[in-house]
Write a structure and sequence with these properties.
The complex is a heterodimer of chains A (406) and B (103). By secondary structure, chain A is an alpha/beta fold. Chain A is built from 13 helices and 18 strands. Chain A has two domains: 186 residues, Thiamin diphosphate (ThDP)-binding fold, Pyr/PP domains (Rossmann fold, 3-Layer(aba) Sandwich); 137 residues, Rossmann fold, CATH 3.40.50.920. Chain A is 39% helix and 19% strand. In chain A, a hairpin with a 5-residue loop joins strand 10 and strand 11. The longest helix of chain A is centred in the middle third of the chain and has 30 residues. The radius of gyration of chain A is 21 Å and the shape is globular. In chain A, 50% of the residues are buried. Chain B is of the alpha+beta class. Chain B has one domain: Alpha-Beta Plaits (2-Layer Sandwich), CATH 3.30.70. Chain B is 15% helix and 16% strand. Chain B contains three helices and five strands; from the N terminus they run ββααββαβ. In chain B, the strands form two sheets. A two-stranded antiparallel sheet of chain B has the order 2-5. The chains are: A alpha/beta (406), B alpha+beta (103). The interface between A and B is medium-sized, with 29 and 17 residues. Strand 9 of chain A pairs antiparallel with strand 1 of chain B. The structure holds iron/sulfur cluster (2 copies).
Amino acid sequence: MTTKVITGNEAAATAAKLARVQVIAAYPITPQSPVVETLSAWVESGELPAEFVTVESEHSALTVCITASTVGARVFTATSANGLAYMNEQVWWAAGARLPIVMCIANRAMAAPWNVLNDQQDSMSERDAGWIQLYCRDNQEILDTTIQAYRIAERLNVPVMVCYDGFLLSHTVMPVDVPSAEEIDAFLPPRTAPLQLVDANDPRNIGPVTLADPRADADGVVRPGYMEFRALHHGALLEALDVIPEVDAEYGAAVGRSWGGLTWEYQLADADVALVAAGSLTTQLTLAVEALRAEGVKVGVLGIRAYRPFPAAELRARLAGKQLAVVFDKALSYGYEGPIAGDLKAALFTAENSPVVFGCVCGIGGRDVSPENLADAARRAIADLDSGLRDRTPDWINLRPEGGAR
Amino acid sequence: MSAHEISMSRPSVGEAGATGDWRNEYPVVAAETCVAAKQGKITCQICWAHCPDACIAQGMPPVIDLTYCKGCGICAEVCPHHAIEMRPEAAHGVCAPAEGGVK
Ligand code: SF4
Ligand code: SF4
């Protein structure tokens, strides 16, 4: 193991190299571009013996990954925002075809209007596509999670998005421990016995028209209908609730670092108020916790690592007995509320001893949000609770409707 | 059913089911008009080449397997001698034929 001072994008690229990916296809888009620029330089120099397929769009990038993964290759791609939206059709295909593709998402705001800065609207909007989604809090977690993602994906035959905040992590350097190739080879053996094996002597059409009802194929074997395949896929996502923590623990045993599996907490045990978020916001929330604790407010952080599958049971357990959960979303389901806030409310609906949930929307399109802003939002939420509120519309942190320079 | 099962098919007869039950019109080949039948040799066969369900066998005239013919009418469209006629199904699971067509 060596320690390197690298960006989040370089951490993602390093992880792909350590995973010995065989096919890479990606199209440049800010802030993801340095991931594939780094990988293409390594392929060019021979440092990474992989096939780097240049494409004319993100739709084609994921299509190349789908085909390569179908014939058994370990593949990698990365994108952001409108690039992810452009590949949307194939995002669904990759999941439904049960391909263990790993895709890094350097989270960026969706156009229009055009904006290359960070929020999490891009990947959150792919919530229901049937991918596993893991969110990272720092560059070390990006590297470790991307390697873990292959093991999770290949065990379940479900693709994984590894999401990290654009610029805040993608372009920010920090020390990252890089495991040795031997350590990762032991943790992540080559992809074996691909389900989608292609055999020229036994040709088949993968993902053909699949009608509503199960029916006998030409050999008389009853094959699932569309709905059965979807139920199996859902079952695999639910199985991921066990597999994600298992793989994190196995990585911990192999490399000496693990990240809490589905969720993690900071000073939450004795807290009355939980501050809930995913991604780099959670590290800022730990600073807000320190400020609030200095004032005697019992508050802690509940970090969401796995957003899909949604760790409802674990969140219920961690929040049992709390008075208030304040959720900080960097995305919005327009016309409703932040996606994590909405999902958390649903998860807690029938729970015993569950807290009131208040949502906040922040950091949209790169709007700066400081630990002080987060602490202020927590103070407002606590005041709302004390005033008797049990529900409210999202608090837009740092929204300046009248404009005005800072 | 394995949790990892994916949807796939093999190239073989009937992989998509008995697609004949999708049909509300069926093709009828008139041997007296079909050029292959008239010449008594395997010629033309344009209908065979165009059938998207591969359910036409080459012949004089070509023979259509109505278990799988989905009734698209492409064979009737492409036949240069207008030897194929599409007729309404007399009975259909979903809709009754207009004007009481006969089979
Ligand atoms: S072309 Fe269409 S109508 Fe003609 S035989 Fe084939 S499936 Fe039937
Ligand atoms: S296309 Fe018409 S003429 Fe030619 S073989 Fe078919 S039915 Fe006969």
